[in-house]
Design brief:
- By secondary structure, this protein is mainly alpha-helical.
- Helices cover 36% and strands 6% of the residues.
- It has four helices and two strands.
- The chain has a two-stranded parallel ribbon with strand order 1-2.
């Protein structure tokens, strides 16, 4: 299985795309528009991840509420993935998907 990383920003910046400054959830249309800019759409299989899993669970919950059918959380997060030297890690400048 090949994973395509969509966000390479620090975890707080990636997770905060779905919340307002006061930490309340953004409007659903706003969240989906932001995700669409990064090719995160309901027609794909989406696995949310973060450092350890709790912020990914929040993003998963938003997608669940939106009715997206193929969503999951990589609950080990970056912490687990990066500790296994056999896992691939992409490096370099992150650019939005075309």
């Amino acid at each position: 299985m090949r994973f395509k990383r969509l966000f390479s920003a620090p975890i707080p910046a990636a997770a905060d795309t779905a919340v307002n400054v006061d930490q309340t959830m953004r409007n659903a249309a706003e969240i989906q528009e932001l995700w669409k800019e990064w090719s995160v759409t309901p027609d794909k299989k989406i696995a949310f991840y973060c450092g350890t899993g709790w912020r990914a669970a929040e993003a998963w919950f938003y997608a669940y509420v939106f009715g997206w059918p193929n969503i999951s959380v990589y609950d080990g997060g970056w912490y687990e993935w990066s500790s296994d030297k056999n896992n691939l890690i992409e490096t370099g400048e992150q650019k939005p998907p075309m």
